[in-house]
Amino acid sequence: MRFWLIIAALIFTAYFAFQRMQHPQLNHNSVIDRITHPTDTRLRYRIGHVDPRFNLTQEQVKRLTQQAADIWYTGAKQSFFVYDPNAQLAINLIYDERQAESSARSQEMRILENTRQYTDAEHFKIQQLEQELLQAKRELDIQQINYEQRLNQYNQMVNALNQSQQRYSDNVMQQIQQQKQQLQQQQVELQTNTDIFNRKVEHLNQNVNQANSINHQFNQSVDQFNQRFQPRQFDKGVFKGREINVYEFQSENDLRITLAHELGHALGLKHNDDPKALMYPVMKEQNLYQFQLTNADLAMLNSRK
Asked: Can you tell me the distance from the alpha carbon of 133 to that of 201, in angstroms, rounded to the nearest whole number?
C-alpha cells in the first residue's frame, strides 16, 4: 500500500511539474488552486486594492481586466485567465506620482487640443477673409477699368469739341457737365471702395500676424510638452508574481492595454521589438481602441510552449 502511495505521489508531482513547465502561468496560482483545479491551466486572478483617486470601482477594474484577458483569448484562440475572488494573484491600482504626472499630461493635452482648435478656427477665418478680399479685388479692378474707360471717353469728347473750335450749345455744355459730375462721383466711390479694400487688407494682415504668433506659441507648447512627457513606459504597471500593480493610466483604453501587457508577463513573456506589439516596452504605436495581438506577440507566446 505504501509503495502505491509513493508511486501515486510521484505521478502526481511529475504531472504538476510537467503542467507548470508547459503552462508557466500556473506558477502564479496557489497550490490549493492547482489541486482543486488539476486540469485547468488558466491563471486565476482577483481584484485587490483600487485607490479611489482613480475614480474606478472594483467592478469597473474587473470588467477592464476581463477585456484585457480577452485580448489574449481572441489572438491566441485559447483561454489563459479566469477571475477568481480567492485567487492568489491580485490586481491593484496604486496611486502615486506617476498618476499625478499622467493627470498633468492629460490636462496639458486638453489645453493643446483647445489651442489647436482655436488656431484651426483662426486659419479658417483667414481663408475666408482671403476669399472675400479676392472677390473684392476683382470687383475693384472692374470698377477701376470702367472708370478709366469713361474718363478716356470724356477726355476724347472734350478734346474733339475743343479742336472743332465751335461754340458749345447749352445742351452740349449740360451733357459735358453732367458726365463730369458722374465721373467725379464715380471717382469718389472708387476711392472709397479702395480705402475699404485697403482696410480689409490691413485687417487680414493683422489676423495673419496674430495667427502666426499663436501658431508659434502652439509649436513651442508642443515642443515643451514632448520634452516633459516622454513616451510612456510600461513600468507604470509591474507584474510581481503574486500581484500586478498599476500606478498610472490616462484612460480606460490605456488601462486595458496596460493590464493585458502585465498579464503577458504573467504568461512568462518578456518584451519584444515590435513597436505595435502588446509586449513592446513602450506605450507608443499600439492601437488602444481595437487592439489585436501582433505576430511578434503570438510568436513569443508560441515559443514558450
From this structure: 7
- What does the alpha-carbon distance between residue 15 and residue 20 come to, in Å, rounded to a whole number? 9
Cβ neighbours of 189 (radius 10 Å): 12
Nine-digit cell string for 117:
482648435
- Give the pLDDT band (50/70/90) at residue 89: very high
Please enumerate, as own/partner, the contacts of 48-57 that have beta carbons within 8 Å and a separation of 24 or more. 48/90, 48/91, 48/92, 48/243, 49/90, 49/92, 49/93, 49/94, 50/92, 50/93, 51/93, 51/94, 51/95, 53/95, 53/99, 54/93, 54/95, 54/99, 56/93, 56/255
Structural element, H or E, at residue 272? none
Q: Which amino acid is at 305?
A: K
pLDDT tens track for 105-142: 777 888 888 888 988 898 999 999 899 989 999 999 99
Q: Spell 274-296 as b/e; 16+ CB within 10 A means b.
A: beebbbbbebeebeeeebebbeb
User: Which cell is 304 given?
Assistant: 514558450
pLDDT digits (tens, 9 = 90+) for 8-17: 444 445 444 4
Spatial separation of the C-alpha atoms in residues 172 and 203, rounded to whole Å: 46
Sign of CA dihedral 95, 97, 103, 105: negative
Residue partners of 144: CB distance under 8 A and separation at least 6: 190
Q: Is 282 helix (H, G, I), strand (E, B) or coil?
A: strand
